[in-house]
Amino acid sequence: MGYQFHTISWLLLVTTLISILVAFVAWQRRSMLVAKYLTFMECGVAVWAFSSFFKTSAVDLSHILILIWSQISYLGITTTPLFYFLLALAYGRHYRFW
Predict the structure, then answer these.
(1) pTM value?
(2) Cα 16 from Cα 20, distance rounded (Å)
(3) In sequence order, which residues have a C-beta less than 8 Å from that of residue 2 and are 6 or more positions away?
(4) What tens-digit pLDDT sequence spans the chain (98 residues)?
(5) Which of 80, 60, 56, 84 has its CA nearest to residue 70?
(6) At what angle do helices 7-27 and 33-57 cross, to 10 degrees?
(7) Residue 39: CA count within 13 A, CB half-sphere
(8) How far, in Å, are 38, 72, 88, 96 from residue 29 at the CA level?
(9) Cα(39)–Cα(4) distance, rounded to whole angstroms?
(10) Both ends of the chain: CA-CA distance in Å?
(11) Which of 11, 28, 59, 79 has the greatest CB tally within 10 Å of its CB?
C-alpha cells in the first residue's frame, strides 16, 4: 500500500487548502445565513478534493485504497451541490421556497 503523487494530486491538495481557507473566513462571518452555507459547501469541497488527492495518488494492486478514498469522497460529492443550492437560495433571498 503506497502513494505516488503527481501534478494533478498536488493541484487537488492546493484546492483543499484554498477551500479550508475560504471556509474559515466565511465561518468568521457566520451571523449571515449565506456565510453558513458557504462554510458548509466549502467543507464539502475540501473533503471531496482531499479524498480525491489520495484517490488519484493511490498505488495498490488490490485497489482497496482507491475504494476507501472513493467512499470518503462521496460525502463531499453529495453535500457540495446541496449546500450550493441552499447558498443560492439564501443569496437571492428566496426564503419562501424552504
Answers:
(1) 0.87
(2) 6
(3) 58, 59, 60
(4) 678 888 999 999 999 999 999 999 999 998 998 999 999 999 999 999 999 999 988 887 668 888 888 999 999 999 999 999 999 999 988 766 65
(5) 56
(6) 160
(7) 13
(8) 10, 28, 17, 24
(9) 31
(10) 46
(11) 79
Q: Which three cell numbers stand for residue 20?
A: 479550508
Residues 6+ apart with CB under 8 A from 96: none
String of DSSP letters for 15-46: HHHHHHHHHHHHHTTTTSHHHHHHHHHHHHHH
Look at residue 48 and give its three-state secondary structure. helix
Taking the C-alpha atoms of residue 4 and residue 92, their distance in angstroms, rounded to an integer, is: 44
The three-state DSSP-derived secondary structure of 54-80 is HHHHEECCCCHHHHHHHHHHHHHHHHH
Q: Give the total residue count for the chain.
A: 98
Residues 6+ apart with CB under 8 A from 95: 89
Report residue 70 as a C-alpha cell.
472513493
Nearest Cα residue to 5 out of 41, 42, 39, 55: 55
